[in-house]
Design goal:
Radius of gyration of chain A: 13 Å
Oligomer: heterodimer
Number of helices of chain A: 0
Mean pLDDT of chain B: 93
Mean pLDDT of chain A: 92
Order of helices and strands of chain B: EEEEEEEEEEE
Low-confidence stretches of chain A: none
Radius of gyration of chain B: 13 Å
Structural class of chain B: mainly beta
Number of strands of chain B: 11
Order of helices and strands of chain A: EEEEEEEEEEEE
Largest sheet of chain A: 6 strands, mixed
Distance between the termini of chain B: 37 Å
Shape of chain B: globular
Distance between the termini of chain A: 41 Å
Largest sheet of chain B: 7 strands, mixed
Structural class of chain A: mainly beta
Helix content of chain B: under 10%
C-alpha cells in the first residue's frame, strides 16, 4: 500500500527565512502529489499539486514544490516565510484511478518566530 | 468563494450514543467525502459518495458508520453507537468531479469528543 512520510513533526523558522518541508512517498508508480495547509480552526486548503510534466510546481501563497522521482520526494519550499504561514502542512498522494481518495502524511507543524 | 460548511464545530457525546455530523458541500459539486483525523495522527479517508451511493469506503468505515444525502444540500455522517476511539476531527469534502484534476474542497471540520 502507498504511504506518505513527513519526517519533521515540528519546524520553527524565523520570519523572512527560507523554508523547506520534506515529504517522501512510497508507491510503485508516480502518484498524484499534493500539499495542503491547515490554519488553526480552518479546513484543509490546497497549496499545490503535481500530476506530470515540469517537476517544479508553483502554488498559492508563494509556495513551490519539487518532485524528485529518484528520491521519491515532493518537498515544499518557500523563499521567505511570513508570520501568517504558521500552520500545519500536509503532504498527500493519490493513486491512478483513486477517484480523489487521498493518503495523507502525519503533517508538519510550522511555527514562525518574529 | 464557495465553501464547504460543517456543523457543529464541536460535538461532545457519551459512549454508545448516536451522532450525526452535518455538511453542506459546494452547491454544484457531485462527489462527497468524509475524512477524519485522530489527534496526532494522519488524516484518513473514510468514504466517498456519488449519485446517492457509496463509491468507496475504507476499512475504518464499518457498520457503525453510515452516510446520507437526505436532501439536495446536506451530506451527513452518522455514527450509530460511538466509541471512545471515534474521538477525532471529521472533515467533509466535496469535488466537482472524481478525478484529481478536480480538487477536494474541505470544510473546517467537526471535532467529535466521545466521553
Amino acid at each position: 500500500a502507498q504511504s506518505v512520510t513527513q519526517p519533521d513533526i515540528h519546524i520553527t523558522v524565523s520570519e523572512g527565512a527560507s523554508l523547506e518541508l520534506r515529504c517522501n512517498y512510497s508507491y510503485g508508480a508516480t502518484p498524484y502529489l499534493f500539499w495542503y495547509v491547515q490554519s488553526p480552526g480552518q479546513g484543509l486548503q490546497l497549496l499545490l499539486k503535481y500530476f506530470s510534466g515540469d517537476t517544479l510546481v508553483q502554488g498559492i501563497k508563494g509556495f513551490e514544490a519539487e518532485f524528485k522521482r529518484s528520491q521519491s520526494s515532493f518537498n515544499l519550499r518557500k523563499p521567505s516565510v511570513h508570520w501568517s504561514d504558521a500552520a500545519e502542512y500536509f503532504c498527500a498522494v493519490g493513486l491512478t484511478g483513486g477517484g480523489n481518495k487521498l493518503t495523507f502524511g502525519t503533517g508538519t507543524q510550522l511555527k514562525v518566530e518574529l | 468563494e464557495p465553501e464547504v460548511t460543517q456543523t457543529p464545530s464541536h460535538q461532545v457525546t457519551q459512549m454508545g450514543q448516536e451522532v450525526i455530523l452535518r455538511c453542506v458541500p459546494i452547491s454544484n459539486h457531485l462527489y462527497f467525502y468524509w475524512y477524519r483525523q485522530i489527534l496526532g495522527q494522519k488524516v484518513e479517508f473514510l468514504v466517498s459518495f456519488y449519485n446517492n451511493e457509496i463509491s468507496e469506503k475504507s476499512e475504518i468505515f464499518d457498520d457503525q458508520f453510515s452516510v446520507e444525502r437526505p436532501d439536495g444540500s446536506n451530506f451527513t455522517l452518522k455514527i450509530r453507537s460511538t466509541k471512545l476511539e471515534d474521538s477525532a476531527m471529521y472533515f467533509c469534502a466535496s469535488s466537482a468531479q472524481s478525478s484529481y484534476n478536480s480538487p477536494l474542497h474541505f470544510g473546517n471540520g467537526t471535532r467529535l469528543t466521545v466521553t
